[in-house]
Design a protein that fits this description.
Layout: H1 12-34, H2 43-61, H3 63-69, H4 72-96, H5 119-143
Helix pairs in contact: 1-2, 2-3, 2-5, 4-5
């Protein structure tokens, strides 16, 4: 992606290193969320790490660059959709098994990636909710401009 804001952000060295490290941070966040039901981690930790990859990109390139690449309204929509789907998963458990957020998908084989019923689904939704939410909090705090006397 071409940077239309070359004077924003940090130095060329930081921007060059960021091109490589931001994907490593993002992939590590995905790994943490995917294996969260087998190892320490999960949706919240994966979402925080994924949000940090966006923060890293924002610090290196500047707010305008990231705003052009990732629209805030899409991030708001993803966050809201993840919340809605998490409630829907809970209602499906209530309807099919009799308790809110009850496992309705079976348990699979022990110590395998698809062995935790609906927990990986909830981890995915929590990852999106936390990742988009934390990044948006950072974005709005970084965009705030204090005006004297107001």
């Amino acid at each position: 992606m071409h940077n239309r804001y070359p004077n924003e952000g940090m130095s060329l060295i930081v921007k060059t290193i960021t091109r490589f490290t931001v994907w490593l941070i993002f992939l590590f966040g995905l790994y943490i969320f995917i294996h969260g039901h087998l190892t320490p981690g999960g949706g919240f930790a994966g979402g925080v790490i994924i949000a940090l990859s966006y923060v890293h990109l924002t610090l290196a390139y500047g707010r305008n660059y990231v705003n052009d690449a990732f629209r805030k309204n899409v991030m708001h929509s993803l966050e809201a959709l993840a919340s809605l789907l998490a409630v829907l998963v809970g209602i499906i458990g209530l309807y099919t098994v009799g308790h809110f957020l009850q496992n309705f998908m079976g348990i699979g084989r022990l110590h395998h990636l698809l062995s935790a019923g609906y927990i990986p689904v909830m981890n995915m939704l929590i990852t999106v909710k936390v990742g988009m939410g934390l990044y948006l909090v950072f974005y709005y705090l970084a965009s705030y401009k204090y005006k004297e006397g107001k």
